[in-house]
Amino acid sequence: MTQRTLVLLKPDAVRRGLIGEIIGRIENKAQWSITALEMRGLDLGLLEQHYGEHAGKPFYEPLVQFMSSGPIVSMVVEGDRVIEGVRTLTGPTDPIAAAPGSIRGDFGTIVRENLVHASDSEESAQREIKLFFPGLV
Length: 137
Fold this sequence. Notes:
By secondary structure, the protein is an alpha+beta fold. It contains 7 helices and 4 strands; from the N terminus they run βααβααβααβα.
């Protein structure tokens, strides 16, 4: 089942020079391809749309502040079961709980700055791709 998902390499991944490593892990999956890629800063409007469901929660303001602290890399990845696969490759948010071999298991340091965002469902992927890559159909 071919799908598309949004993947964001967060400011900590960019600061730590992990862009190539993380993209390489995605590219090494034979049935996946990166079909859109961009490095950019995030403005408050986009962050409010992307994280709007979390507004008012205790972690919302620190999250928005972190995500606007430096450039990110946004990409669309396509392939067979890519939503589930990228989330497995990424690993759980808590780097201590993340298995070795996952991105967070190998490189994660703290829960709040967790290197990567990956869409959690087809509905989320469609909504998020429209936000970050409005020119894609």
